[in-house]
């Protein structure tokens, strides 16, 4: 019924290159592996009688059986062989579990290593603690079946498949002594992000980076289907990974004794190859560019659900899709199945593995490393313990000189690029910038003065002419947002810092990755004091919706902000700096922060600048404020509040104010700009939210508010629906209107333009509804003329393109 057996310790067993394990070492490693597998199965089924000290009864079984068994034995098998090499070569090594719901493998090892009991003393290394350990798994009030943040030794949430390998590379960058072993599930290997992340080997520098040892675990099935890579020929599989640039080694079979010898031999060869690659690169004369290595990887082929019963009710179990989740589903109500579960659990011989108190026998414990060399206790898997703050230059010295508001045009992101250039220079081993082939496009190319783009593949002479490729580059570019975000997350989760820029329309590619990381942060920050704070994920969203005059409708989507606001207010921040000095202030703040995902929205094109550096710092510190230079209600109650968030909506709102102050000078306008979007929320809903008094003071309790917003209008209503004056909020935002338009024409189509905003004020302010009728007609004419001019000339008129804030004469 079961393939598990206790291995012989015959002194006649011989050690050879192909059979490196002596009899006693083989017995101990196999015993540790059986203990891991017993714990994995126990987590799935048992809530009482954890070591089967009495016959198994229905009341010992969980009432709801939730969890996955299929990949666990292969993962524990990999782990025990890593333990052997950590001890033999004193390796600094972490493990990433890629298969979905594969947490039992990591949990069982963490428990046997003693780390779990150190972190959670109630889960003690005795029969009482083991019973609690089993019961909590996939149980109300307990832990989930992924490697969630509660799992010591994990930096990877397996809630969504596809990111394990990119997380592994992120962990290895700038960690020269670290080996990251990533077990990739064969179901996971079918995802787009995982397929692309194999190319990460073209960016790993053997001189100053660590190594990634992938283990592709082919057990043949997903939930109910075979997996692609398990059903192609061996030659095709080998060619695939050689084509990716790897050197694949295969370990396959189902006999434990033979498999242990295979794995010990192959894994040791891989580790020695990694060390040889690194030694060759690191011992070369200074200035020698390293060649791209053919890093080793392992293809581990085992039966699905290895070591579980061969059959159940006449159906194949081990080696079939039926072993993916719970191999036997109804032991509580089916006596025959209860006996089968008991026989399965007893096949691991727990009575040989655990002492009377319920602790793993010392002889087996000694096969595992100790202290911080334990995989689940490695500090890289709790990266906040290793994190050091960035050495940041004074952002103020990069500021734009603004003598009068709205007179000069500057690229805000271009200004930011100079600041980031020097952040790189001062943090050459702990800071990287990520972006999909858009660093120069996003006007951040000043960074190339400090560092080129990381690149270990072929270089051609012409690459030096503007390509800025470098084997030791700090700028990470690859046309895969998934891989970049995975690198970034792995990098900060292991204690470093970074910055990511992306076109606004395509940052949606990492929507679900953002979700997963936000959940990880929330759980870590609010519930797990043992997890040290990590550097924030900083996302610069640029190439914005309002400046897509050549890309058109497909590149117009500011909806990422809506996604961000759905996540915990404890870990999310959104900033819309209106000019370069505000962007510098915001960026400095974000780079200093921990345990957040900071989203910064700033266009790359040249725009008017409004605040000098001191004013910008003050404004960003408050997050929201009245701009006196654009307001004329001082000492009086305003007739209307003109509010805005975003650089382009700000300029259009200011232009609308200038029109109104010229043509309707009697109207009293208060101008409010929002940098920190969450300031609009009530203080009871977000840490940055305004109190009712603060909000009412800015926006009044009964006056019309014309709010010009960068993204979809509904988001502002979502934030303000509880406010007293919400009924008077009239929000302008993107309405899914546009194509190949001039900037003003696109604004007109979505009614965020200066003319529509001024019309809105006239319609909302009672005293203007009759007196400003001629002004309103003029504004309508301006809309028609502006669109006609754009269609005739392909650009906006000189009056629009050259507009400046008129200043005191307005």
Task: Give a quick set of tags describing it.
Xul5P/Fru6P_PKetolase_ThDP_BS; Rossmann fold; 810 residues; elongated; alpha/beta; aldehyde-lyase activity; EC 4.1.2.-; lyase; thiamine pyrophosphate
What does this structure look like?
Residues 604-805 form the Xylulose 5-phosphate/Fructose 6-phosphate phosphoketolase C-terminal domain. By secondary structure, the chain is α/β, with parallel strands linked by helices. The strands form six sheets. The protein has a six-stranded parallel β-sheet with strand order 12-9-13-14-16-15, sandwiched between helices. It has a five-stranded parallel β-sheet with strand order 1-2-3-5-4, with helices on both faces. The longest helix has 28 residues, at 256-283. The model is unreliable at 1-13 (pLDDT under 50).
Secondary structure blueprint with pairings:
Blueprint: H1 23-45, H2 72-89, E1 92-97, H3 103-113, H4 115-119, H5 127-136, H6 164-172, E2 178-185, H7 192-197, E3 211-218, H8 234-244, E4 247-252, H9 256-283, E5 296-301, E6 311-312, E7 315-316, H10 335-346, H11 350-353, H12 362-365, E8 409-411, H13 412-426, E9 431-435, E10 453-454, E11 469-470, E12 475-477, H14 481-493, E13 497-503, H15 511-527, E14 537-542, H16 560-565, E15 572-575, H17 580-592, E16 597-601, E17 606-608, H18 613-622, E18 624-626, E19 640-645, H19 647-663, E20 669-674, H20 692-699, E21 705-709, H21 713-720, E22 729-732, H22 743-749, H23 754-764, H24 766-771, H25 773-793, H26 798-801
Parallel strand pairs: 1-2, 2-3, 3-5, 4-5, 9-12, 9-13, 10-11, 13-14, 14-16, 15-16, 19-20, 19-21, 21-22
Antiparallel strand pairs: 6-7, 8-17, 18-20
Helix pairs in contact: 1-2, 1-3, 1-5, 2-3, 2-9, 6-14, 13-17, 17-18, 19-23, 23-25
């Amino acid at each position: 019924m079961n393939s598990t057996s206790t291995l012989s310790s015959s002194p006649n067993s011989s050690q050879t290159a192909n059979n490196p394990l002596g009899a006693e070492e083989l017995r101990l490693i196999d015993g540790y592996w059986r203990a891991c597998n017993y714990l994995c199965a126990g987590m799935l089924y048992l809530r009482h009688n954890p070591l089967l000290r009495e016959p198994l009864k229905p009341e010992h079984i969980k009432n709801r059986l939730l969890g996955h068994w299929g990949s666990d034995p292969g993962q524990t098998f990999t782990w025990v062989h890593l333990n052997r090499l950590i001890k033999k070569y004193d390796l600094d090594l972490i493990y990433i579990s890629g298969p979905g719901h594969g947490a039992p493998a990591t949990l069982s090892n963490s428990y046997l290593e003693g780390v779990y009991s150190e972190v959670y003393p109630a889960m003690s290394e005795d029969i009482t603690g083991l019973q609690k350990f089993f019961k909590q798994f996939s149980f109300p009030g307990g832990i989930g079946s992924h490697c969630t943040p509660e799992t010591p030794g994990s930096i990877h949430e397996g809630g969504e498949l596809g990111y394990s390998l990119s997380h592994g590379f992120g962990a290895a960058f700038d960690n020269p002594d670290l080996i990251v072993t990533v077990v990739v599930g064969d179901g996971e290997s079918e995802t787009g992000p995982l397929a692309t992340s194999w190319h990460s080997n073209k960016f790993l520098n053997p001189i100053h980076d660590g190594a990634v040892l992938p283990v592709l675990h082919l057990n043949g099935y997903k939930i109910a289907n075979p997996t692609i890579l398990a059903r192609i020929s061996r030659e095709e599989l080998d060619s695939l990974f050689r084509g990716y640039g790897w050197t694949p080694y295969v370990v396959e079979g189902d006999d434990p004794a033979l498999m242990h010898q295979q794995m010990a031999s192959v894994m040791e060869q891989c580790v020695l190859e990694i060390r040889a690659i690194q030694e060759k690169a690191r011992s070369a004369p200074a200035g020698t560019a390293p060649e791209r290595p053919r890093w080793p990887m392992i293809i581990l082929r085992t039966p699905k659900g290895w070591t579980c019963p061969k059959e159940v009710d006449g159906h194949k179990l081990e080696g079939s899709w039926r072993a993916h989740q719970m191999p036997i589903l109804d032991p509580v109500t089916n006596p025959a199945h209860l006996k089968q579960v008991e026989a399965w659990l007893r096949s691991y011989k727990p009575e040989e593995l655990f002492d009377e108190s319920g602790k793993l026998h010392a002889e087996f414990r000694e096969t595992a490393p100790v202290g911080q060399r334990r995989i689940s206790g490695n500090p890289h898997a709790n990266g906040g313990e290793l994190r050091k703050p960035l050495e940041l230059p004074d952002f103020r010295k990069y500021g734009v000189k603004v003598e009068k508001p709205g007179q000069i045009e500057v690229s805000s992101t271009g200004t930011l690029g100079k600041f980031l250039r020097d952040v790189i220079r001062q943090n050459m081993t702990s800071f990287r910038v990520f972006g999909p082939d858009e660093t120069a496009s996003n006007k951040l190319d000043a960074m190339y003065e400090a560092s080129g783009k990381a690149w270990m593949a072929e270089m051609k002479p012409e690459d030096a002419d503007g390509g800025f490729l470098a084997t030791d580059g700090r700028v990470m570019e690859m046309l895969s947002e998934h891989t970049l975000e995975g690198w970034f997350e792995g990098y900060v989760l292991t204690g470093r810092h970074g910055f990511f820029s992306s076109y606004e329309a395509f940052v949606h590619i990492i929507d679900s990755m953002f979700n997963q990381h936000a959940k990880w942060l929330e759980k870590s920050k609010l519930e797990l004091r043992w997890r040290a704070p990590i550097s924030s994920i900083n996302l610069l969203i640029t190439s914005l919706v309002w400046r897509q005059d050549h890309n058109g409708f497909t590149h117009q989507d500011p909806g990422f902000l809506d996604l961000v606001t759905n996540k915990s207010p404890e870990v999310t921040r959104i900033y819309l700096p209106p000019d370069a000095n505000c962007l510098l202030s915001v960026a400095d703040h974000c780079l200093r922060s921990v345990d957040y995902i900071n989203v910064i929205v700033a266009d790359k094109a040249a725009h008017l600048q409004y605040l000098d550096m001191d004013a910008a710092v003050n404004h960003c510190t408050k997050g929201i404020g009245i701009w006196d230079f654009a307001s004329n209600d001082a000492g009086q109650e305003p007739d209307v509040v003109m509010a805005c968030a975003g650089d382009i909506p700000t300029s259009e709102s200011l232009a609308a104010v200038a029109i109104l102050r010229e043509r309707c000078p009697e109207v009293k306008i208060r101008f409010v700009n929002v940098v920190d979007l969450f300031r609009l929320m009530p203080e009871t809903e977000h840490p940055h939210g305004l109190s009712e008094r603060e909000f009412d003071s800015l926006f009044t309790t009964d006056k019309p508010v014309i709010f010009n917003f960068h993204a979809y209008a509904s988001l502002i209503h979502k934030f303000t629906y509880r406010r007293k004056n919400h009924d008077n909020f009239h929000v302008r935002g993107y309405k899914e209107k546009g194509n190949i338009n001039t900037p003003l024409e696109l604004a007109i189509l979505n009614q965020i333009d200066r003319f529509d905003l001024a019309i809105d004020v006239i319609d909302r302010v009672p005293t203007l509804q009759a007196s400003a009728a001629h002004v309103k007609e003029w504004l309508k004419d301006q809309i028609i003329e502006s669109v006609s001019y754009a269609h005739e000339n392909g650009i906006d008129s000189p009056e629009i393109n050259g507009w400046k804030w008129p200043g005191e004469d307005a």
